[in-house]
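Sample 3 of the quickstart, ligand adenosine-5'-diphosphate:
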Amino acid sequence: MRPVNIMKVNFLSRSANESFARVAVAAFIAQLDPTVDELADIKTSVSEAVTNCIVHAYKDGIGEIYITVKIYENDKVSVTVKDKGCGIENIERAMEPMYTSTQGGERAGLGFTVMQSFTDRLRVKSRLGFGTTVIMDKKLGKKSVARGT
Amino acid sequence: MRPVNIMKVNFLSRSANESFARVAVAAFIAQLDPTVDELADIKTSVSEAVTNCIVHAYKDGIGEIYITVKIYENDKVSVTVKDKGCGIENIERAMEPMYTSTQGGERAGLGFTVMQSFTDRLRVKSRLGFGTTVIMDKKLGKKSVARGT
Amino acid sequence: MEINNSQITVMSVRIDNSEGVVTAYLQGELDHHAAKGIREEIDESLERLRPSTLILDFKNVTFMDSSGIGLVMGRYRTMQLLNGKLVVKNASLHIKKVMRLAGLDRLAEFE
Amino acid sequence: MEINNSQITVMSVRIDNSEGVVTAYLQGELDHHAAKGIREEIDESLERLRPSTLILDFKNVTFMDSSGIGLVMGRYRTMQLLNGKLVVKNASLHIKKVMRLAGLDRLAEFE
Ligand SMILES: Nc1ncnc2c1ncn2[C@@H]1O[C@H](COP(=O)(O)OP(=O)(O)O)[C@@H](O)[C@H]1O
Ligand SMILES: Nc1ncnc2c1ncn2[C@@H]1O[C@H](COP(=O)(O)OP(=O)(O)O)[C@@H](O)[C@H]1O
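Result:
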């Protein structure tokens, strides 16, 4: 199925851009008139995925983060967050609740758990040394159509 | 001079995306702690440039709009809005206040005037049949630095 | 600057009519996307009611670009045809700044 | 949905201390970017004041992701070391939902 509206955004892996990423995605899907809860779920999931790029994928420097948001006719939203960072060796282990590769105890290891709980479907693709792509789908409950020219 | 932070966003020329474009740019430059006035100036200028892509560049269909926002050390912001639409035959005439190629009187012909008044510098490049690029620079008044990792 | 969350406000207009004065209470962000619907609603009222005064109330307009100028200019022309006048009310500083670029402050009455 | 304008809220914390109870009033959006500074401010107070109770007040927290869980968990551990307790106050439904994923509702007292 072809999306009715698409937005792509990319930016540097600076932590100051975490909030920007959430706002940009939220502002784009606002045209579907999401509920406050739906918007919070999506913002939180985007925040997790983007933070992972900054904290894990590009832990030793600054790289680019790529987000694509697609809106489909039936109010389905698909958000892709991609990096060209270090990649994940063992995706299954990485997705386990409470697993984190970070020392010091300030990461809860719950990023993937949040993404999984707050969206309808989560897919993770990764290649060691080449980067990671996270795809999150969510169907919004209320009926409405992307309006406009 | 190299920018300290860059964001690129592209989206379809649907009018529902006009507000998205403003919010995305504003959310990105929010890290510079702009004043309400500075933010309004930039949002208005972005709105003009994006509307021009929708109304003029892609008047006969839907195309892609590309925005790049660069933040420099000295709180200078540069916003580029680009389309691959019809292009402008006579840029000088197009930039004259009150000139509009649209019939019916609902366009005021003041888009470029707004961009020029609300930013420090406006550059327009265009090639007939290939598209138009608008570059707007604005220095924000307050001292602050893009923080973060 | 104190700012909070992601956002788009859908534009709307409420129209009031009393004794030859039509007031259009605009609300939201007035851009090209929003202007068309608003314009049609206002024009429909003007045609039907043929008022002597049209008041455009901008109190709840949180954003306006030059599409708003087109809206005001067009309604100014219609009111001239009706031998009436146009009043712009409660415009914020930012909106006045945009209107001034078009010299609207010389065409409409500001309140 | 009714939403208005573009935004980022800078996170801040105000710390209150009275009779062994430290209250940290958090404000803004609690993400990874914000968490570091907040964590340091709270830890500095805990080290200095060694309270028996730490209250984290989320009333003015408008967003939280799993970085906030890390923040709460870490403070929970510190309070255990001090033989004290942690209270989470005024968390919104969304924030509670995030905390529940981590089982924080079983570690801290909620008010
Ligand atoms: N984009 C990424 N690039 C590289 N590694 C990642 C990425 N995202 C997640 N990971 C790995 O997966 C682990 C679990 O991620 P997550 O559940 O988000 O928890 P946390 O971010 O708290 O560590 C991370 O600790 C990291 O090792
Ligand atoms: N991106 C663009 N592509 C093609 N033509 C454009 C573009 N931007 C502006 N123009 C031309 O320049 C004219 C003046 O633009 P502007 O000052 O924004 O006024 P308006 O949009 O109200 O017509 C337009 O009417 C159009 O002919």
